[in-house]
Write a structure and sequence with these properties.
Number of helices: 17
Shape: globular
Number of strands: 0
Largest sheet: none
CATH class: Mainly Alpha
Low-confidence stretches: none
Strand content: under 5%
Mean pLDDT: 81
Number of domains: 1
Radius of gyration: 20 Å
CATH architecture: Up-down Bundle
Helix content: over 70%
Distance between the termini: 33 Å
Structural class: mainly alpha
CATH topology: Growth Hormone, Chain: A
CATH superfamily: MFS general substrate transporter like domains
Order of helices and strands: HHHHHHHHHHHHHHHHH
Length: 408
């Protein structure tokens, strides 16, 4: 493994720890600050996530485009510094408007995911892109192992403690990047920044010129909408369905993160070698569908853990899909492509929390026609079905040939 890959792997690990730390305590914090019950807290949680996601949607292609012009390194370091301040604001918040402010700023700082992905694309060969994107997912999984465990343990000291820990981790991440993260944008690949290409809608318009890519962008959007059911309602679902506390929420997230590390860090390479990128992505989406359906029948905590060794194989879908898409664009457009995918991810985090939390609240309030906390997973299952239907008809070799101006 090349040293820059290790650098970016550790950077994503530290970054994702900050996310995992706060997830177990979000229901408690919202109930404390807003003085509401669990059903209404889920609605507030969805609203806060949407505030976060709107800014991520708007700024992801801007920051991705800026990284193509000014370099990946300065973009990542500045964002991490602001992220540390943002966690401090949320840690001290005693009013909902401060939580909104924290999520507003946090959405901007979180828009650097496209830059990290572009960095990985910079240092990867065409043959290794899917595998290295899998390493990014594995790094995210490592952070999710450590983050929820730490967040669950710190919850004993109050719902604020994990936010202060997340601020410290973000600042440490910035220092780490300052000393070890080399720049990958050179004069040969540097591109002039253009506002028309650095906004979410302009980026999508630019993507239209890449024949065969729009169906895959829509598949990516549907897959993201389905997946974001987890950060949208998992902590609330666990409390309603299994009576979990913050510690148990952290343990389940950590166990799922461990599964992601194993699958994306070790198993995805032989899977890709044996089946190729398209079949691997198809397999991952089918595992998503199976998992979302299975949640409808789970009534005990042990069932969640028992099914987890199967459900984590759904983690191969995104890196395989990213590899297919990345290999369909030129080297100097990687930041733009990742920016578009970042915007789609942010768009999914706007749509998914609004839908999932509304569905969860409807089926868990006292006037619900049927008590069904798992109902949002049915919505995710439907999204996966639509993605599968579109994905099976896509021809990656034709899209690549069209982009290169050749014939398949």
């Amino acid at each position: 493994m090349r040293l820059p890959v290790i650098f970016i792997f550790i950077t994503i690990v530290l970054d994702s720890m900050g996310i995992g730390i706060i997830m177990p305590v979000m229901p408690d914090l919202i109930q404390e600050v807003g003085n509401v019950d669990l059903s209404k807290a889920a609605l507030w949680g969805g609203t806060l996530t949407v505030v976060f996601a709107i800014n991520q949607f708007l700024f992801s292609p801007i920051i991705g485009g800026m990284s193509d012009t000014y370099g990946r390194r300065p973009v990542l370091l500045v964002a991490l510094f602001v992220m540390a301040l943002d966690y401090l604001v949320m840690g001290f918040a005693h009013a909902m408007w401060l939580l909104f402010l924290g999520r507003f700023v946090g959405g901007i700082t979180a828009a650097t995911q496209s830059t990290a992905s572009a960095y990985m694309a910079d240092i990867s060969t065409k043959e290794d892109k899917a595998k290295n994107f899998g390493l990014l997912g594995a790094a995210f999984g490592v952070g999710f192992i450590l983050g929820p465990i730490v967040g669950g343990l710190l919850s004993e000291y109050g719902s604020r403690a994990p936010f202060f820990a997340a601020a410290a981790i973000a600042f440490a991440n910035m220092l780490f990047g300052y000393f070890v993260l080399p720049e990958t944008v050179t004069d040969a690949t540097r591109r002039k920044f253009e506002w028309r290409r650095a906004n979410p809608f302009g980026t999508f318009k630019q993507m239209k010129q890449l024949q065969g890519m729009l169906p895959m962008l829509f598949v990516f959007l549907l897959l993201s909408i389905a997946f974001f059911v987890y950060p949208s309602i998992w902590a609330f679902f666990g409390r309603a369905q299994f009576d979990w506390d913050a510690r148990m929420v952290g343990m389940t997230l950590a166990a799922y993160g461990l599964g992601i590390v194993i699958v994306q860090g070790f198993l995805i390479r032989p899977i890709l070698k044996r089946f190729g990128e398209k079949k691997t992505a198809l397999f991952g989406m089918c595992m998503h569908l199976l998992t979302f359906t299975a949640y409808q029948f789970m009534t005990e905590t042990w069932q969640v853990f028992a099914f987890m060794p199967l459900s984590v194989f759904s983690a191969v879908a995104v890196p395989a899909l990213q590899g297919l898409m990345s290999n369909s664009v030129s080297d100097n457009s990687q930041g733009e492509l990742q920016g578009a995918m970042g915007s789609l991810t942010a768009l999914a985090t706007i749509i998914s929390p609004l839908v999932m939390t509304q569905v969860f609240s409807y089926f868990t309030n006292e006037n619900a026609p049927i008590y069904l906390p798992s109902a949002p997973f049915l919505v995710s299952a439907f999204s996966i079905v639509m993605a599968l239907l579109m994905f099976r008809s896509w021809k990656p070799q034709q899209a690549i040939a069209a982009n290169d101006g050749g014939q398949p």
